[in-house]
Amino acid sequence: MRGLGLACWGQVNAMGTLMGTVLLTVALSDTRLNWDVFSAWLITQHPLAKIAVGAVIVMDNVSIHKRPDMLEPTRAKQC
């Protein structure tokens, strides 16, 4: 398997949407992950639009995942 040749000095955050075995969206950020970075990914990649109504969403315990403006769209999809 051929590598991507990525060099990293510091932290890289990965965000993605996986449905079954299909990777729907992915983004890498070498900046600190905050609401601005996360919401930009939500807007540009539209991961919620790509998942089925009632899908199970698994997120870690970072505070930006608990914001009301994050919870409202997931509730609208009945997730």
Features:
2 helices, 25% helix, alpha+beta, 79 residues
- The structure class reads alpha+beta
What percentage of residues falls in helices of 4 or more residues? Answer: 25-40%
The biggest sheet amounts to: 2 strands, antiparallel
Radius of gyration: 14 Å
Number of domains: 1
Helix tally equals 2
Strand content: 15-25%
Ends: how far apart? 36 Å
**Judging from the principal axes of the Cα atoms, what is the shape?**
globular
Strand order of the largest sheet: 1-2
Helix-strand string: EEHH
Give the number of DSSP strands.
2
Mean pLDDT: 79
What are the low-pLDDT stretches, counting only 5+ consecutive residues below 50? none
Describe this structure in words.
With 79 residues, this protein is of the alpha+beta class. It has one domain (13-76). Helix content is 25%, strand content 19%. It is built from two helices and two strands. A hairpin with a 2-residue loop joins strand 1 and strand 2.
Write a concise synopsis of the structure shown.
By secondary structure, this protein is α+β, with helices and mostly antiparallel strands.
